[in-house]
Amino acid sequence: MTRRDVRELASLMDRERRLLLSGDLAALARLVPEKTRLAAALPSAGVDRETVEALSRSAHRNARLLAAALSGIQSAQLRLSAARDTPPNLETYDRGGRRQTLGGAGIRHDHKA
């Protein structure tokens, strides 16, 4: 691995961060082969400690962003599944003005602060 490859890996990790922040997962997937190739060659690069630490910080930052993106996707899947699998409710009022619910158990929407 050359110094140019190290710079290319750092640049690729910055692009990865921007793609994670923008939510462009398709473009993110296209970076994997090049990132894998460059990362595999890193141990033989003979780079200084400062460079390795900077790359490590970038990798950890991107890993946290990726975990957050995955968590968001899983949360959305659960909500969509609940919406699809739960019969809709109909809320109405009886003659006495009391609210009554007709239909299934309904969807509970949890709001996070």
Please tell me about this protein's structure.
With 113 residues, the protein is mainly alpha-helical. The protein has a two-stranded antiparallel sheet with strand order 1-2. The longest helix is centred in the middle third of the chain and has 37 residues. The model has no long low-confidence stretch (mean pLDDT 86).
Keywords:
113 residues; mainly alpha; 3 helices; 9% strand
Radius of gyration: 24 Å
- Give the N-terminus to C-terminus distance in angstroms: 46 Å
Number of DSSP E strands: 2
Q: Largest sheet at a glance?
A: 2 strands, antiparallel
SSE order, one letter for each helix or strand: HHHEE
User: What percent of the residues sit in helical stretches (DSSP H or I)?
Assistant: 55-70%
Please, how many helices?
3
How would you classify the helix and strand content by structural class?
mainly alpha
| Strand arrangement across the biggest beta sheet | 1-2
Question: What share of residues are in beta strands?
Answer: 5-15%
Poorly predicted runs of 5 or more residues: none
Principal-axis shape: rod-shaped
Averaging pLDDT over every residue, what do you get? Answer: 86
Describe how the helices and strands are arranged:
Layout: H1 3-22, H2 25-41, H3 49-85, E1 89-93, E2 99-103
Antiparallel strand pairs: 1-2
Helix pairs in contact: 1-2, 1-3
